[in-house]
DNA sequence: TAGATTGTTAATCGATTAACAATC
DNA sequence: TAGATTGTTAATCGATTAACAATC
């Protein structure tokens, strides 16, 4: 039932469903219809049903969807039950925020190391981890084989860092640097988070709305 | 020429064009064709021309696009030359990172205040600003009328905070809280940044690619 | 059973790509 | 002028919405 050619648009909505269902659970609700969920989430009931049916029939005619069940199903589709090892590269403001702010465990990740190239930062303790020297990345990866790297480094180092990490067996990048990791590593999974782009888009919108 | 019904898909690509053009400028290039730019950015030349022509004919047949000129044009479309006053609400890890990491000025914004509700944090200095008590938000807004608020607060306070800020005349929100600001404020411009969602989408992708 | 609501197919809408005439 | 490349229209593709038969 699963796995085949699900479009990115659908995937990107799954975490949002997951979030809303979690809230409904907290509210103590048991079931919900696509119509009611659509009103809360401000999208169409049709879209919800269409989206969910990419992965299977989780609802029941005449009843709706069981919230706990659907929540668990989506969590499983998103593979939030894993324990993939993760490192953060770059212990500046952003690296610190990401390491402390995010609950990796909840999403199936496990932070195992933080790196920086600045000797003044190396040795500091952040989110329970001693910051390691970025020079030791290769050997660290060889020993602990992390699966994913979170890049919180300046643009100018990003290209080289991706190369090193890629060679060291890391196949997924959550990229916060102002640099685009493009298709040069066909086996890598990449999620570019461009905060600057987001701010610029907001700037445009504000202008349009006359703010 | 401008202003009419430009789709979100186009808008979201503009900052990326802007970034790439900036790089080309730094490389000292003078002009570029849609074909060459498309190869660098990994999209189609057709799309680039289509996108740019939403705003005007910036190119020249047989020549291509003048990089400096196009860069300036896009900057102007995105309204990066403004000086909109901005406040940050929430001086935790994320608030600190956002306040220090981002170059607001470069994108037409000006940070004028940081707020937190925790007395232990109030009074601290972050990115050149003394953290103010969140209780004073209303009066601060009345006096300095910021246009935008960056929300770096926990989910449970987000709804109320948006309400207060909205009543205080703030019409744009860059929302990092794990909460969706939906259409309840029709005049507000909202950009939701859901890092958790981004991480979950990445999790899915990793699973698909067999990481 | 009757009412409700799903799963799923068909219709619509919008975004991307292809093609080519205009023009530098 | 000939070659290159844009601006723009037309064709294709994909995503969203509407409709309704299936079924709980």
Characteristic key phrases:
homodimer, 211 residues, alpha/beta, Arc Repressor Mutant, subunit A, Rossmann fold, 2 domains, 7-stranded mixed β-sheet, 3-stranded antiparallel β-sheet, 8 helices, 10 strands, 43% helix, globular, DNA-binding
Give an overview in words.
Chain A contains eight helices and ten strands. Chain A is an alpha/beta fold and 211 residues long. The first copy, chain A, folds into two domains: 70 residues, Orthogonal Bundle (Arc Repressor Mutant, subunit A); 114 residues, NAD(P)-binding Rossmann-like Domain (Rossmann fold, 3-Layer(aba) Sandwich). A seven-stranded mixed beta sheet of chain A has the order 6-7-5-4-8-9-10. In chain A, strands 1-3-2 form a three-stranded antiparallel beta sheet. In chain A, helix 5 links the parallel strand 4 and strand 5. The mean pLDDT of chain A is 96. The interface between A and B is large, with 59 and 59 residues. Chain A binds a DNA duplex (24 and 24 nucleotides) through helix 3 and strand 2.
Order of helices and strands of chain A: HEHHEEHEHEEEHEHEEH
Cα end-to-end separation of chain A: 47 Å
Pairing-aware structural class of the strands and helices of chain A? alpha/beta
Question: Regarding CATH, which class of the largest domain in chain A?
Answer: Alpha Beta
- Strand fraction of chain A equals 15-25%
* Count of individual helical segments of chain A: 8
Major sheet summary line of chain A: 7 strands, mixed
Largest interface: A-B, 59 and 59 residues
- In total, the number of domains of chain A comes to 2
Morphology of chain A: globular
Radius of gyration of chain A: 20 Å
Percent helix of chain A, as a range, is 40-55%
Q: Any low-confidence stretches of chain A, pLDDT <50, length ≥5?
A: none
Task: Round the mean pLDDT of chain A to the nearest integer and report it.
Answer: 96
| Architecture (CATH level 2) name of the largest domain in chain A | 3-Layer(aba) Sandwich
Strand order of the largest sheet of chain A: 6-7-5-4-8-9-10
Please, what is the CATH homologous superfamily of the largest domain in chain A?
Answer: NAD(P)-binding Rossmann-like Domain
The number of strands of chain A is: 10
Indicate the multimeric state. homodimer
CATH fold title of the largest domain in chain A: Rossmann fold
């Amino acid at each position: 039932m699963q796995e085949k050619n699900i479009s990115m648009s659908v995937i990107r909505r799954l975490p949002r469903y997951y979030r809303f269902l979690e809230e409904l659970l907290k509210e103590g609700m048991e079931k919900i219809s696509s119509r009611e969920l659509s009103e809360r989430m401000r999208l169409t009931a049709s879209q919800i049903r269409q989206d969910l049916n990419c992965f299977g029939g989780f609802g029941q005619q005449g009843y709706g969807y069981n919230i706990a069940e659907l929540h668990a199903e989506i969590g499983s589709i998103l593979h939030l039950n894993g324990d993939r090892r993760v490192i953060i590269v770059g212990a500046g403001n952003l690296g610190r925020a990401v390491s402390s702010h995010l609950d990796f465990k909840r999403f199936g990740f496990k932070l195992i190391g933080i790196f920086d190239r600045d000797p003044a930062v190396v040795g500091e303790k952040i989110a329970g981890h001693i910051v390691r020297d970025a020079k030791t990345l290769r050997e660290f990866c060889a020993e602990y084989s992390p699966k994913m790297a979170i890049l919180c480094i300046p643009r100018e180092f990003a290209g080289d860092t991706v190369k090193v990490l890629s060679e060291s067996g890391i196949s997924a990048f959550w990229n916060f640097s102002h640099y685009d990791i493009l298709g040069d590593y066909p086996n890598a999974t990449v999620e570019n988070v461009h905060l600057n782009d987001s701010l610029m888009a907001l700037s445009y919108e504000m202008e349009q709305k006359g703010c």
